[in-house]
Amino acid sequence: MYTPQTLLPELVKKIQNIRVLITDVDGVLTNGGIILDDKGMEYKQFQVKDGQIIAFLQAAGIQTGVISGRDVAVVKNRCQQMGLDFHYHGVRDKYAKVREILSDLGFTPDQCAYLGDDLIDLEILSKVGFSAAPMDALPYVKDQVDFICSLRGGEGAFREVADTILATKGALQGIVAKLINRQYEG
């Protein structure tokens, strides 16, 4: 059974309060690379495991979303495929957008988890209830977060945070057991 990194009791308390999980895209859901073809078409590679957990987070009462500083079609398409509750693109002041989202949802910053990896994410990471960064985030970003993933951006860092939240809340074990024990209905 999956068990999260050994977490300090104060971190467990923070995670148990989480009601919304927001993530950056480039460097978190992707490895941060950008592939451009001769016509300027942009391509990115996403880790499918990150998207697989969204419905389970939502079923556990955790809203999910993306705030991206870039505005590109491939990211919008992936966000729609993942079934996120919300996604915003081309956002320059990410913390203002987080405050707006939390206000609209009726949540406080301590009920928000955020996963980011770069300068544009620092303000949010320092003000939410639970902050995380991929293993390959910049050192000064990792210095500001509650949780450093064992995985790199684009290689399942989002999934690691989602699994950690679900496991800490006691939901992941039930999800796994239900899927293992589900009877064939045909």
Q: So, the CATH homologous superfamily?
A: HAD superfamily/HAD-like
Q: What is the beta-strand fraction?
A: 5-15%
The CATH architecture designation is 3-Layer(aba) Sandwich
List the strand order in the largest sheet. Answer: 5-4-1-6-7-8
Within the CATH hierarchy, at the fold level, what is the topology?
Answer: Rossmann fold
Radius of gyration, whole Å: 16 Å
Enumerate how many helices there are, as a single number. Answer: 9
Total strand count, please? 8
Per CATH, the class reads Alpha Beta
Q: Describe the global form.
A: globular
Give the total of domains.
1
Structural class by SSE content: alpha/beta
Terminus-to-terminus distance: 28 Å
Which regions are unreliable across 5 or more consecutive residues at pLDDT < 50? none
Topology order in helix (H) and strand (E) letters: HEEEHHEHEHEHEHEHH
Descriptive overview:
β4, α4 and β5 (86-88) form a beta-alpha-beta unit. The protein has one domain (9-177): Rossmann fold, CATH 3.40.50.1000. Helices cover 38% and strands 14% of the residues. The mean pLDDT is 93. The chain is an alpha/beta fold and 186 residues long. The strands form 2 sheets. Strands 5-4-1-6-7-8 form a 6-stranded parallel sheet, with helices on both faces. The chain has helices spanning 9-16, 48-52, 54-59, 73-82, 94-105, 122-125, 139-142, 157-168, 172-181; strands at 20-23, 35-36, 42-43, 63-67, 86-88, 112-115, 130-133, 147-148.
